[in-house]
Structures are given as structure tokens and as C-alpha cells.
Amino acid sequence: MSLKSFLHKLHYDPDHSKPPDFEPDWYNAPLAYKLYRGLPTFALSSEVPLTLEGRPVPDRAEIRDIGHFLWYVYGLAQLSQSVFYMDYGGLEGGANVFHSLRRFAPSGGSLYPSEMYVYLKTDDLPVGIYHYDTAHHRLVLLRLGDFDAYLTRGLGDRCDLSACFGAVFVSTVFWKNFYKYNNFGYRLQGLDAGALIGQLLETAKRFGYHTGVYFRFLDRAVNHLLGLTEQEESVYAVIPLSLQPSGSWFYGSGAEAGVLTSRQLCAALPVVRHEHYVRSLRTTEYPLLLRMNEASLMETTESFGPLDAANIGGTMTGGGETVALPRAQRLSFDLASVVRKRYSPHLDFVFNTVDAHQAAALLHEATASFPYTNDLDTAGHESRKRVSIYGCLYGLEGIPDGAYRYDALAHELRMIRPGDYRMLLQEGITLGNVNLFQTPLCLHVAADRNHYADALGFRGYRIQQMEAGMLVQRLLIAGVALGLNGHPLLSFNPADCDKIYKMEAEGVTSLIQVPLGACRPSSRLEGGLYS
């Protein structure tokens, strides 16, 4: 199968992206977190603050605050136990008990294929590369030393790391969700990484940390720095952390440094390999995921040049009747309180009317909080709007039922089709785990149908999925702040959604579906892992 055909099947025909006889081996499931063995560890403060409001602007990076930051980004936050009763054709079924350790960012199947590594330069710890051990809330030292020069070269000399106290690396471990979802896991991995990055960027704001996201870097050189085996895991994004605004250190042309390859940079550091535990007794091969990863790698800094706005910028224009939304201000809320309340309802949604003011506040907050410093946009220019929000709205006070696109710049809804589309959307949910007749908003994050392939090749696909995940996390946070919860869904029919919104003419497609609404308390046992 060609990789282009593979991506098409992932999006429009996911059931045929995996073998027809595939069944997950539940007894061979890996852990949802990576455990290194035999390496120095540094415990982080477990006295995590339960509010992030009113924090002073830091004048130095302290490991106590960094530990709290890491926990709010990707720490274990909740133990959940759910019981499902199975009915086998009228015969008495048994009860299935599912346990999961949840974090503040959503993940498909609560499998968390991403891992998080940090490069730290603080007075409290030896300077070096660490893995954030989620299970024990601690740092594991992987490589000792100052790697400013190495990482700067790996980023194409576009970052002044001397102005940063560290950097976060977000990786993907392929097996962690391939065992359950097979090849479909590739689509989930990008979205999961994006949700994690979205949570990281929002949390960094509360801690007074300035950030920027590099999607383009010398992959093999960065993986080499962390000691990763590329057949198992690969870094998807590099995010420096600083106490100085990103405009002073993030952007750089790199032209004066000359062309550098991954092979040349890797030769500057010895190979390190560390033992780690995954629990699975065996792993099956995932050749298509490895082919996709190989095709997405950047081998030379020549790949980091300016991007053509026509090939990666937003193209969504849309016409039709407009519905003006009430003026909305940025929401004021305690992020710590909001993310503790967030969860993904299944059949827990109950229909409550949402008015135009709530819808306006939700859409405005999600899009206003989204802009971030990154290496796809050009310094000094307005950020390109690569991902947009569409929605099928029903029963909203002051807004006619219909399918809309949200115009963030004008803060208004552009009607594409009038009517109630809940039945069509419900029929498109293959798992039937959400009742869309109980949700007044069913939103879709959409972007370029070609996945930026002209500008970025196959790397464009995973970047697009990450940006979609980042926007979804903003929608979920804003929703909870307004008393709503959302359930990100990939088990929907994007072809039907594209038709509803007339997307083909605009060259875009639906990437992920997010129904939002009120919900009853979940029927599961939950316990927060915080004091």
C-alpha cells in the first residue's frame, strides 16, 4: 500500500486500515507510561498546588515549580474504575471492570502513547536530559551535560537556547496504542501529542513560562540525544522553556550556520541506550507506522526554510448567511480547577439548552487562546489559521438550527446549511458510545484536505493532527469553564461531515468530532491523585 493511500484510508475508511482479523491482545497490553531502570532519579515535590491563580511571575526557574508544571501537563491525576455489563444474545452476561489512570489531557482509549522528556539547566539539578517518570512523579537522568550547542544545531540554529532554562520533548511510542488500534493508532498518535502540547502551552502561561513549538528539527539527531530507538519511539515536537518572551529567542534564520545533516550532528555525541520496562511480553510489527515515520523525518537543515503561505495557510472562506454572536470577553477561570473537572462523557450527556452567549464565549475562548509561537509561521507576521471550527448546532437559544463555520476574526457564525443533522451524525458514529441527540453542539475541527503535503510532505500529516489536538484541548478547557463537557471522537464518518459543510469546494476536511453539552455525574468510581 502506498503511504498516500494509507493516509486516505486512515481518514475516510479506518476500518480497512487494519487487517480484517485483527483483535487486540488485552493480556499483552503495555503500560501507559515508560519506566526506565537502573538510572539516577530525582523526586519532584508532591505538594502540588490545587490552584494556579495568583501565581507571582518567577525571576528564576526552580525545580519545585518545574515539578508542579510537569504534573499539571502530564502527571497521573485520577484513578477511574468503570463497570460494563455484557449481554450475550439474551444469555446472562458478565461484568467487565476497567481501570485507568487518567491525566489532564485526553487520550484515545486512555492509552497515552506520548512520552515527555526535558532538558533542564537549573541550580537545583545536574544539567542534562531527563525523562518525566509519570508513574512516580520524578525525573530520570538520561544524559548528563550542557547540550545548548547540540540542540541549537538540531533546530537549525533558529533558537537561542542560552535564553532558555530548558526544553520539553514530546515523543510518540508506537506500540502503546498500536496494540489496540493497529494502524489507526498512527492517526491517534498525532492528535494525542497535540492535546498534550495544548495542555503544556496553557499550563506554561500560568507558571510564567514562555514557550515556542518547533515541529521541524533533525529527528534522528534529537532522538539520538535522548537515547531513543527509532523503531520504537520518535520525537514529534521540541518546546523550549524560558522566562523571557519568545520573540527574543525563538526566531532565527539559521542561514549563517550552513547546511547540517542528522548524521553529522549525531557523530558529535556517543550513543546511549537505557533499559526500560513496557510490560508487554511481545510486540507485533507495525511496518506502515515505521514507513510513515521514516517518510516524515527531516535529515537536513535545508528543510527548515520559510513555508509558502499558499500551501500551508488557511483557505477557509465560506459564504452564506451570517449569524452575529454576542460580544465575548476572554474567560477568567482557574485552570487547575477546570482540568480536574474535565472528562469525556459517553452516554452521560443530558440535553440542556445552551444560549448564544455560552456558544459565543466557548468559540471565542478556544480560538483566542490558541495562537502560539511556532516554526510554521514567520516572525513579525500574523499567525496563519491552519485549523478551523465548524459545527452542527441544535436547540441553541438565539441561533437557528444548522451547520455553520465559525469565523473567529469577525466573531460570527456563517451558515452553510439550515436544519437538524443529529440523525446523520449519529448514524456515522461506529461505536455508538455517545448519544448526539443529547448534545446541542457537535463541533468539527477542520483543516487542509491535502494535509500540507505540498509544503511539508508526509510530515505535514502529523503536524496537522497535532494542531487539531491542540485546538480540541482548548475547546475542552473552555467548555468545562462554561459548565459543558466534550468527548473527542474519531469514530465518525468524515465524508458525511464534509458533505454537510460543503468542505470539498474549500479544500478542507473534518479531522475530529467534539460533541459538547451538559452531563450527569458519571457512573464510575473515581479518585483524584492529589492532596
From TrEMBL:
GO terms for molecular function: oxidoreductase activity. The lineage of its organism: Bacteria, Bacillati, Bacillota, Bacilli, Bacillales. It holds the Pfam family Nitroreductase. Gene3D superfamilies: NADH Oxidase (3.40.109.10). It comes from the Bacteria. Residues 103-238 form the Nitroreductase domain. InterPro entries: Bacteriocin_Proc_Enz, Nitroreductase, Nitroreductase-like, SagB-type_dehydrogenase. This is SagB-type dehydrogenase domain-containing protein. It comes from Paenibacillus tianmuensis. SUPFAM superfamilies: FMN-dependent nitroreductase-like.
